[in-house]
Sequence to fold (290 residues):
Amino acid sequence: MKSQQKYPQVFSFEFFPPKTPEGTEKLRRTRDTLANLRPRFFSVTFGAGGSTRERTFETVLEIQQTSGIESAPHLSCIGSTRASIREILNTYRDAGVRHIVALRGDMPSGMREAGEFRYANELVDFIRAETGDYFHVEVAAYPEFHPQAPNAQKDLENFKRKVESGADSAITQYFYNPYAYFRFVDNCERMGLQVPIVPGIMPITNYAQLARFSDACGAEIPRWIRKRLEAMGDDRQAIRAFGEDVVTEICEVLLEQGAPGLHFYTLNQAAPAVAIWKNLGLDTPTALDG
Fold:
């Protein structure tokens, strides 16, 4: 963890583009609440095409123009062309966006070919070739390794390629075993990689939803946590209280050991992240104490 202790701690929150007017208003309230915590940036997940992509643009540009917080759009390359990625980069640059989360992404429904990009390191290469150092480029990291990786070593090599292509920093997939993160960082250090690797944090509020997400992305829910959550059934208040305690403790361990910040996967909700933030004693404004 020595490599991570030299970096300043950066805190950030992730949103997804809403699909309805009601969702848009909810996200605005969430954004305004979390903006009071003065995070470094808000990231926004990426829709690959059509109206989904437009919702990403609208959300990113509104955050950039109205929140006072830097916006960091996700940019997925699988199934995309160089021309389409170039257009997106130019749109963001014209809007004053300086931060990109560069990802491989999932193949759009109905598509069989990967397109002109196969891997995230190729996207990072392209961003650097097109825009130089204009954008701060984040990439993804997987402490428990990517579900499509054949083994942990191959996954580390994939991460190394992204860093060597010009990534400035990384955000991890969420996890509930901090030692998986520590081992991943130690392995990166042995490979000579020198970038901040910020832990991704998923608050626990809905067990069925969390289990579904975790099965899809390969994030392990430790057995003792699963068993406790299963025993709570549909008692959402108990699940939320237990989840808040567990995730707070994980965050405490990470920060004490020198993690360079935290990135919260909010699912467009403010309250769970704010509760953990307060528990950690981070610089919470008085306005949020009520």
Q: What stands out?
A: Strands lie at 10-15, 41-44, 70-76, 99-103, 136-141, 169-174, 197-201, 261-265. The longest strand covers residues 70-76. Confidence is low (pLDDT under 50) at residues 284-290. Residues 2-284 form a domain with the TIM Barrel fold (CATH 3.20.20.220).
